[in-house]
TrEMBL record:
Domain HTH tetR-type: residue ranges: 23-83
DNA bind region: 46-65
Name used for this protein in its record: Transcriptional regulator, TetR family
Cited InterPro entries: Homeodomain-like_sf, HTH_TetR, Tet_transcr_reg_TetR-rel_C_sf, TetR_C
Keyword set, alphabetical order: DNA-binding, Transcription, Transcription regulation
GO terms assigned for molecular function: DNA binding
Domain of life: Bacteria
Record Pfam families: TetR_C_13 (PF16925), TetR_N (PF00440)
Region listing for Disordered, in residue ranges: 1-20
Transmembrane segments: none
Length: 229
């Protein structure tokens, strides 16, 4: 949706006064930029494409967002605020046990990554993985975001250990890394056109690796997510 341009008051002679200049719906423009970055990535999105999608002039863009990089950072935060609503609501739901939380998280991931009202996959999962030296700050920022979600998973698993829902000898960090890797793989599958059901089936198969019993042994290929395994 193109942002509606709001014209300010004009002074005498039809000229714009010294008051507030023409404004635009900043939130709508930011959402348009977020979806474009999500679809094409930082380097794949040109400045001209950005201002066209946002419905703003070059001067309004610089006055409001400062630079393409600053806009990308803000668009990323906007995406994280949106995705964090469903991610953390499921991950930290006190009414379900830890294993159920992760099973539902994979189910929701399959749904969210294949919705028709936004680009496929995840804006964070693969962003900034191939960057020239001059864009190391973008690469580092996206790596930090991915690490944060993984650490949130690990924290939930540790809570499960404390509550007796997860075996005491489970390697919480490794299990979280595994779940994070699966989620990022689902993002790739979604971008390649995989169906929601295929993603859901992958998530269900991934859950078969969840530590079972006091030994923490996995049921997937005889591997284990237990310390010292």
């Amino acid at each position: 949706m193109t942002p509606k341009i709001i014209t300010g008051k004009k002074g005498e002679g039809g000229k714009r006064g010294r008051g507030r200049p023409a404004a635009f719906d900043r939130a709508v423009a930011l959402q348009a930029a977020m979806k474009l970055f999500w679809e094409r990535g930082y380097e794949g999105t040109s400045f001209d494409e950005l201002i066209a999608a946002m419905g703003v002039s070059a001067s309004s863009f610089y006055n409001s967002f400062g630079s393409k990089e600053a806009l990308y950072c803000e668009a990323t935060r906007s995406y994280l605020e949106w995705s964090g609503q469903w991610f953390f609501a499921i991950l930290n739901d006190p009414s379900i046990d830890t294993k159920t939380a992760f099973a539902r998280l994979f189910e929701a991931t399959a749904e969210e990554f294949t919705r028709g009202d936004h680009p496929l996959g995840c804006m964070i999962s693969l962003a900034g993985t191939h960057c020239p030296p001059g864009m190391s700050n973008i690469r580092d920022m996206m790596a930090e975001h991915r690490a944060f979600s993984e650490s949130a998973m690990a924290a939930r698993i540790r809570k499960g250990v404390a509550n007796g829902e997860v075996p005491e000898d489970a390697d919480c960090d490794m299990l979280a890394a595994y779940c994070s890797a699966v989620a990022r793989g689902l993002a790739v599958q979604a971008r390649d056109g995989a169906s929601r059901e295929k993603l859901a089936q992958i998530g269900r198969l991934a859950m078969s690796a969840w530590p079972a019993g006091k030994s923490g042994r996995s049921r997937l290929s005889g591997n284990a997510f237990s310390d010292g395994a």
